[in-house]
Amino acid sequence: MKHLLITFMLFLSCITMGANVSAATMSQAEMEKLVVENAEVISQKKGYVVFMYNKVKMALISDVRHDRMRIIAPITGYLDLASGVKDAVMESNFHSALDARYAVSENVLYSAFIHPMSPLSRHQLKSALNQVSNLALTFGSTYTSGELDFDGKTQKQKPREIGVSFSAGSSVF
Length: 173
Prior knowledge:
The protein is α+β, with helices and mostly antiparallel strands. It has a single domain (25-173), classed as Yope Regulator, Chain: A (2-Layer Sandwich), CATH 3.30.1460.10. The chain is built from four helices and six strands; from the N terminus they run H-H-E-E-E-E-H-E-E-H. A hairpin with a 4-residue loop joins strand 3 and strand 4. The longest helix has 21 residues, at 2-22. It is globular, with a radius of gyration of 19 Å.
């Protein structure tokens, strides 16, 4: 029995090690290339790309040294939001925001996807672009980053156009 257990553990170790070796590592250059291929780039420098995707102004920010990346889209000022809207934002982070989330920095409400860079796949990055734009577009209506919703309700309301102070001409970035 002891030998069987050791053999099984060695087998699992080999599978795990093989999975880690065969997984492709996402690079800063590859992320930026994917954004350039799928969006309208407004400005770009290494580690920072501002672009329009699905009619939403967004930025890809990456830090190779810390192996982190984020995609953000400014939505509106945060301090002036009604408490009910702030509650809806927080509730959506739990039920319907999925991998993208609402986040606040320096009085700006953002749609944001934050992730370690190297384990990110191309599929996950494309999904992140969609989720960040959907979360920004559905602010004030369904507050969702996609079709899946963990509270069991279906989202049928049409996303609204962003008509807030941080539109495409924004000075946020």
